[in-house]
Amino acid sequence: INSILYERRFGPYFVEPVVCGLEETDDGGIEPYIYAADLIGAGLYADDFVVAGTASEALYGLCESLYKPDMGPEETFEVVSQSLLAAVNRDAYSGWGASVYIIEKGKTTIRQIKGRVD
Hints:
It contains 3 helices and 5 strands. It is α+β, with helices and mostly antiparallel strands. The protein folds into 2 domains: about 1-50, no CATH class; about 55-118, no CATH class. The longest helix has 17 residues, at about 75-90. It holds the Pfam family Proteasome.
């Protein structure tokens, strides 16, 4: 991803990819894998969360205040949903809603949230 984005840095793709998943640790446990890149391919590995897109400035503050370690799937969904809806309401380029993916060991839950459509 980084190479493709950097190669097009003077005529960039206007995307900010986020890659998430679960990876096995050396002791056999599972931990989240969170990676994001900007539109020219500068990457960021995160331990807690990343934000991307046109509403990222509004999202960052909300996520920073609402995030806490070791949240369960339901609480994570609520925090993500409320953060997205609040940020989208403050950003004219964002709209319609979002898909929220909750990734757990052996299971991925996808839920749609509806936002404003103006």
